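Help! Submission page says 'invalid entity' but I think these are all valid:
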Amino acid sequence: MLEFDVRCRVGSFALDAAFATGGGVTALFGRSGAGKSTVLNLIAGLARPQSGRITVEKRTLYDSASGIELPPHARRIGYVFQEGRLLPHLTVRHNLLYGNFFNKKKNHVVGFDQAIELLGIGHLLERRPGQLSGGEKQRVAIGRALLANPEVLLLDEPLASLDAPRKAEILYYVERLRDEVRIPIVYVSHSLDEVVRLADSVVLLSDGRVLGTGDVREMMSRVELRPYLGRHEGGAVIAARVSGQDLESGLARLEFSGGALEIPDVEALPGEQVRIRVRARDVSIALARPTGLSIRNVLAGTVVELAGDEGSSLDVRLDLHGTALLARITRKSASELGLRPGLPVFALIKAVSIDRRSVGYA
Amino acid sequence: MWSLSPAETTALLLSLKVAFWSVAASLPVAVALAWVLSRLSFPGKSLLDAVVHLPLVLPPVVVGYFLLLAFGRRGPIGAFLEEYLGIALIFRWTGAALACAVMGLPLLVRAVRQSLDAVDRGLEAAAATLGAPPLWVFASVTLPLILPGILTGMLLSFARSLGEFGATITFVSNIPGETQTLPLAIYAFTQVPGGDAQALRLCILSIVLSLAALMASEVLVRRATVRAAGRDA
């Protein structure tokens, strides 16, 4: 449990943000310059606030009212930096054990053997950081932070400097971390893919202020946050269960409260839970169930609200029997169809519009 | 022809002793000064920087004369040291080491400061988040990373000490076996008729010594640089 409520001014940038996180993965999401990294530095004690309060698991790290300000080394915050920051003069083994030396007596988050197994870095132990690939460096950096027995793990865009295959590699390990190690994680990202795949909850930051916090699915379906969540990539997140894989067609069948979806290339076994981001621009709306159509997914629902700025298009929030879905359509279509809250409609989703990157494994 | 006379051996060993102790004594001071100049900002910082660099630009005889004023028997520091601690510097090899330390200090400070400026502060911050208190961070992160700079500085100041003449002869005079280092011995030989051959022998000895020190430090610096860069040593 991390509680953050801080005001801070650095040059012309002002941060005034308050949020609380529970267990699991909390994504700090926002554009570059929104203040995401500043928040992490404030939590870790690498930047100084003007006023406010930061607590972790009831332990006060900073409180301007009572004059408490713990130095970074006493905070027990595991920090995985964007660029890894491994100590170049030490071997991987000694990098991993560095923090452990100062925190031997604290509760163990993971043991040494468990950490190297979890992150797949056993074969790297005697190497030096200069001999590691970008992905390997990040895995070692995560292991090093964990082995210092922190109470919270901060990940600052750990994928930012990696190419696509390396990103997938690290995402896999972060997912294992989330599922196998009981430690709250704050994950900074400006990639919706990563957020949707990993996060349980989202804190949306813009210009140093918190625009909204909440469960990842709820946040993704809030129309008023759409401009901040990426107009082109944004869309609702659906939690579904794999009910079957048709090997012949290559399509997986996913069931959720609003019905069933057929999607290609889902690497999951029947029974597994997945979450799928359906981009708003890939969803069409029909008043009657269409026939003679290539679109495989036709789902019945009702219009909840319409929202949009002055542009030519707007966002329609649909309710599919308890699951929210966003559709981005032109303003003209909306008025020609006569869309209004409460109207029963059908949502049309092309199966091929959902790619591998939009699927996360819960 | 190739063996050293007892007088030559004495001068050589004294030179090495003086150079070694001048580097050893000035190293902690130089690292502290370099750290202050690299990491802190305070009023008067550029003045401190200038004072540290003075021996580089002043005539050595001026430095020697000020050392004489300050550390001589009647000097404020010299009188104190002799009366309360029983330490005499003037006309002693320890005084020669002090003169060499002062003359070599700017070279040492410069080299250490340059490598301190180049240290990625993010690495120190990372070590702090892992639970390392500031002194530990310095010892386990900063110091290993600036080791190449420290070695370079040590070599420069060692070489400066081997060649130091003006401040030494002004401060502690030219006493064989006590303060007569190689350059002073060479000078002494050039001042007596028929001493040219002897002076030349000592000149060659100086060259050999300097070359050996340069090459040894080159190897050490290369090794330390590779280590600090994270490739295998």
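Support: the input was valid. A stray whitespace character was the problem, and the output above is from the cleaned input. Residues 235-361 of chain A form a domain with the OB fold (Dihydrolipoamide Acetyltransferase, E2P) fold (CATH 2.40.50.100).
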